Amino acid sequence: MPYIEIKKSLFYEVMKRVLDLILAFILMVIFSPVILIVAIAIKLDSKGPILADTPERMGRGGKLFKMFKFRSMVQNAHEILRENPKYARLYREYKYGSYKLKDDPRITRAGRFIRKHSLDEIPQFLNILRGEMSLVGPRAYYSDELREQQKKYPQTEKSVKIVLSVKPGITGFWQVSGRSEINFDKRIGMDADYVRRRSILYDLWIILKTPWAMITGKGAL
Hints:
Helix content: 40-55%
Strand content: under 5%
Number of strands: 4
Largest sheet: 2 strands, antiparallel
């Protein structure tokens, strides 16, 4: 997909990458006991792998990448939703609700807890180390999600192009602002606004607000 780049200084780009690498490594060490506990809980709770087998996401420049997440749903959840006639109504609700479901029957018992507190996002530290994501940035969208939502909200085309000019983040402005349940048009607008305003201090402010969003279950890590 085409994108519109909002230029920032070389200093910002270098410092952001340095902070990403340092903080991702430190947080992986800090969260190592949580990683072990969550992995065991997933295996005991349901059949399937520890990591989710999800479609690729769109990264910087529209490049597709594999996002690492703990599995919080039943195995093959994405294929089940899209291909099983039993879930046809839910799939329509999923697309109409900006690619979110409030009461998703595919979520496991362990998955409900780890999703509420954003623990499923922890493996994305690996995406940061690989250079595919940043600690702070826009949501990492599915390619079909962007295509479908732009049909529904054609006024979002410019915002989508701006968002695709940067790496997606584990956390972001709309997550920590307590507005994680908003529709696509508002969410992509907030993501684009972050891209325009981004700075080291702004990123640090979002990072500092993230732990409270995780504890209260109102945002994402």
